[in-house]
Amino acid sequence: MSQVKKIKLGISSCLLGNHVRYNGSHKRSKYCVEALSEWFDYRPICPEVETGMGIPREPIRLVERSGQIRVLNVTDHSQDYTDQLTALADRRAQNFDDLDGFIFMQKSPSCGLFGVKVYNDNGMPGPDPDQGAFAKRMTQLFPDLPMEEAGRLNDAGLRENFLTRVFAHAEWRKEMFPPSAKALVAFHTRYKFLLQVRSEKHYRELGQMVSQAGKGDINELAEQYFGLFMYCLKQRANPNDHVNVMYHLLGFIKNDLDHTSKHSILNLIKLYQQGTLELLVPLTMIKHYVEKYRVDYLLKQKYLSPYPQQFERYNEEQFKNKYFIS
Ligand code: SF4
To answer: Does residue 61 register a pLDDT over 70?
Structure first.
């Protein structure tokens, strides 16, 4: 059993194996149910059931009509559920205030977060996909909340990005209420390299914001900072960004390393850059020496340890076992 207090995540109910789909089936996600539930408390919701559509029910889909995207009954276009699904998100918003993330079911006209098919009135799929109605309203209501689709968690980069954002969101809520200039500076310092690798531009803007801490309204500054912070974390780093940051980290330990160790780390970074090795390999090596030489500034860096320690060990174990969504 985990020692870390469980973080609350919203989730599409069918992903937990609940029989709430239109045909009474489910879309159980092995990864969400068996791996992540050890660490997260789920708050399940099935928007279609909660809006009273019943089980079983007739299937629905996104349809473009007069320039608007509506959620309509597949066979009877007079049945329009768009407003109900949107209003549900508004109604439930206050129950979601303590969430640190949300996992949605992909492709759903209610829950899909990315690329949901939009049909025209004649039943043909159109060129521009959209979001499910409930998920779309959730992204408007909670722009800073980490959200992802279960299917996309199969991608190592997207999974790492989502989980990092979830833990960062939880840390912010725990440590920045009420906000203080000192806490903001400490928070930003811990995330320095992680932000830098995601987006140098936004990292610099965030640094400028933090330099204003203590000079004005800290609540306003913290709110602005957090919005940009979560946006920055959402960006995907490319290998060259990681290589630059790893060279930077190496600068902190280079005087402690003997020639062989230094050469070996540089070689691992090069192999990663060439695509021969996973990022984890040079990073683990750097982390080993950072711990060995007790480089305090780097020990606190989220770039080297974005997750709580126990989760990190557990997570690595799960992935070794290929614990994945079917
Ligand atoms: S995708 Fe969403 S609306 Fe559809 S069954 Fe799952 S939870 Fe319900």
So the answer is: yes
Q: Shortest CA distance to 302 belongs to which of 173, 191, 185, 146?
A: 191
Give the domain extent around 93: 7-154
Same domain, 16 and 135: yes
- In this prediction, residue 326 carries a pLDDT of 30
Q: Whose CA is nearest to atom 8 of ligand 1?
A: 46
Tell me, what's the pLDDT at 310?
Answer: 77
Digit-coded pLDDT (tens) for 71-94: 999 999 999 999 999 999 999 999
Those residues with Cβ within 8 angstroms of residue 4's Cβ, 6 or more apart along the chain or in another chain = 39, 308, 310, 311
Q: What is the residue with the minimal CA distance to atom 6 of ligand 1?
A: 14
179/97 same-domain check: no
Provide the token pair at 9.
Answer: 């995540």
Residue 325 covered by a domain? no
Query: Does the pLDDT of residue 315 top 70, yes or no?
Result: no
Same domain, 196 and 69: no
CA of residue 56 to ligand 1 center, whole Å:
12
Q: Is 17 found in the same domain as 125? A: yes
